[in-house]
Specification:
The complex is a heterodimer. Chain A is of the alpha/beta class. Chain A contains eight helices and ten strands. Helices cover 33% and strands 21% of the residues of chain A. In chain A, helix 5 packs parallel to helix 6. The relative contact order of chain A is 0.18. Chain B is mainly alpha-helical. Helices cover 80% and strands 0% of the residues of chain B. In chain B, helix 3 runs antiparallel to helix 8, helix 5 crosses helix 6 and helix 8 runs antiparallel to helix 10. The longest helix of chain B is centred in the last third of the chain and has 39 residues. The chains are: A alpha/beta, B mainly alpha. At the A-B interface, strand 6 and helix 2 of A face helix 7, helix 8 and helix 11 of B.
């Protein structure tokens, strides 16, 4: 058996700051995410979680600082995120699927877009058809993996919310991106569907852990943005809290310069067979609520951060 | 109850009754008119109408042509060319405006202005710019439907959720692929609906222009026969126009159902 590998850093956010006119949103956000990590990003409403999420996706670039991806071994210095790219998959709460494609087509479209060019499609139609068939078969396999083998031909409007999110996850996973970003993915789902999908993520996390134990690189790194603390602690193996309620006066600011990281600690790791008992992490949940969500007790940066330099 | 759905069978029966009432109403009107004036041609009897149809399809002694055939050829060609050029230009312009903000800023104001100006009122401008031949009819239809159609395409592109656009990029799409494989798929059913709405105005522009300057075509024949109070020819022509509009609409709805089966359900 190989020695478990210590996963390297996959994404580094260095001094991310962002503002819209006079409104300061993010201030000096520094986070390093290791390969294989399932990081939960939590924070109060309006703290800039989505803005930070967008800087990682690359749709909104930060005014200051940079996000650097280290997914290409040939470029050890990393690659600055300058726009959306196929190395990052995203799953949104709404608009997670293309309404004009079936489940299978939704999953296969990434392979088709990535593997063939417009010229290929129009100039070599027979070869393109062959590629497309292959992509559809791979998409069907992926959908079976997320237990949607019976829903291949369903359009999004014919699927439940949970099915849609599972297809969206399959759509991202089939591209084997360096990082998958989930923005409140289960926010609009009922409790039982939410639990089912959370268990699916835990299953994927277990697969990652098995790969690390075998000395292999974990296949999936994930950031989940959620306002639900129980979900953050249950699904993630690390919780990062972004908050505007921090002691910025102690750093000499006259007004709040924006939200920053005030909490960064490992979360308990669950297995699929473990019971989903949220009381197990009550203390940590209370701590996060106090540090991240409570305006009356602003904490200093770094006090509740233990894993930032752990890569 | 308000908006309660009815069975297909019930709907068909109601439609047939409506058509039967229309035919019965016309028969009664024509009969009453002929009681007053047996030589009346303004509301022709069914027999007179059959005579009018014969006149349209038989070889005309003076011109040596079949009216209906030459009118169908002329108007059909003008309408097809006008619709094709208008739709092609509107799709290109609407997509361009929807995808590139500078293009939106540049084209939106003149397009919004042109959309408010009725092309039939600008007939003289088309005479001056394109003469009185086929190019005039084609450009009138093309420019007539362009503003509304381009705006429909533009609005359909604008309403596409940007999250899905970002998603397409993360799935490896290039800009061109986002436009063709994603945005155009979203726009297509709305484009087909917008074309359905444009068929009527396009026919209005064509008939109006043919009435004024045409020497062949549906508008020309209707104007000429109306002047002679020869309504037994005019009514079949009108029925043909209505039939064309009906089948064009049905055909476009069929295309939408076939090409975009997701659309009805998605729209809810």
């Amino acid at each position: 058996m190989k020695t478990p590998a210590r996963p390297s850093c996959l994404l580094e956010s260095r001094g991310i700051s962002h503002w819209f006119g006079q409104k300061r949103v993010l201030h000096d956000v520094n986070v390093r995410i290791r390969r294989g990590e399932f990081l939960s990003l939590v924070g109060p409403s309006g703290c800039g979680k989505s803005t930070y999420f967008r800087t990682i996706v690359g749709t909104h670039l930060p005014r200051a600082g940079e996000n650097r991806l280290f997914h290409d071994p040939a470029r050890p210095e990393g690659e600055i995120v300058a726009g959306p790219g196929r190395d990052r998959g995203i799953v949104y709460q709404h608009y997670s699927l293309f309404p004009f494609f079936t489940a299978q087509e939704n999953v296969a479209i990434g392979l088709t877009l990535d593997g063939t060019s417009m010229g290929h499609r129009f100039l070599r139609p027979f070869d393109f058809r062959r590629c497309e068939r292959e992509h559809m078969e791979r998409a069907a396999d992926m959908l079976r993996r997320v237990r949607l083998g019976d829903a291949l031909r369903l359009y999004p409007h014919e699927m439940s919310g949970g099915m849609k999110q599972r297809v969206a996850l399959a759509q991202s996973m089939i591209m084997q991106p360096a990082l998958i970003l989930l923005d409140e993915p289960f926010g609009a789902l009922d409790e039982s569907t939410r639990e089912e999908l959370q268990r699916m993520l835990i299953e994927l996390h277990s697969e990652n852990q098995s790969a690390i134990r075998r000395g292999e690189l974990p296949s999936l790194t994930l950031i989940i943005v959620t306002h639900e603390l129980n979900e953050a602690l249950y699904v993630g193996d690390r919780v990062v809290g972004l908050s505007q309620y921090w002691d910025w006066k102690s750093e000499g600011h006259e007004r709040c310069p924006g939200a920053t990281i005030v909490y960064d600690k490992p979360a308990p790791v669950f297995e699929v067979r473990d019971s989903r008992d949220f009381e197990q992490f009550k203390n940590q949940r209370d701590e996060i609520r106090d540090v991240v969500f409570e305006p009356k007790t602003p904490s200093r940066r770094g006090v509740h951060v233990v894993s930032e330099n752990g890569s | 109850m308000i908006r309660r759905p009815i069975s297909g069978q019930y709907a068909t029966v109601l439609s047939l009754i409506a058509i039967a009432l229309l035919i019965a109403g016309y028969t009664w009107l024509s009969h009453r008119q002929h009681q007053r004036n047996p030589d009346d041609t303004t509301i022709p009897s069914w027999k007179q109408l059959a005579g009018g149809v014969r006149q349209a399809v038989e070889v005309n002694k003076r011109s040596g042509e079949r009216w209906l055939v030459e009118d169908l050829k002329a108007s059909g060609f003008r309408l097809a060319c006008g619709l094709f050029s208008g739709i092609a230009a509107a799709v290109a312009l609407g997509m361009f405006m929807g995808c590139y903000t500078p293009a939106e800023a540049f084209f939106h104001p003149p397009l919004a202005l042109l959309a408010q100006s009725p092309p039939t009122a600008a007939l003289a401008v088309f005479f001056v710019l394109a003469g009185t031949g086929d190019p005039m009819f084609v450009s009138m239809i093309g420019f007539g439907i362009l503003p509304a159609l381009a705006m429909s395409v533009f609005l359909a592109v604008k309403e596409f959720p940007e999250e899905l656009q970002f998603k397409a990029y993360t799935l490896g799409a290039s800009h061109l692929e986002v436009i063709w494989s994603v945005l155009f798929q979203h726009v297509l059913p709305k484009l087909l609906d917008a074309i359905r709405l444009c068929i009527g105005p396009a026919m209005v522009y064509l008939i109006a222009a043919e009435m004024v300057v045409g020497d062949v075509g549906f508008g020309y024949r209707i104007r000429l026969q109306s002047k002679l109070l020869n309504m037994s020819v005019v009514y079949p022509y009108l029925a043909l126009l209505a039939g064309f509009g009906f089948f064009a609409d049905w055909g476009l709805r069929w295309l939408r159902r076939t090409w975009c089966p997701w659309f009805e359900g998605h729209r809810g």
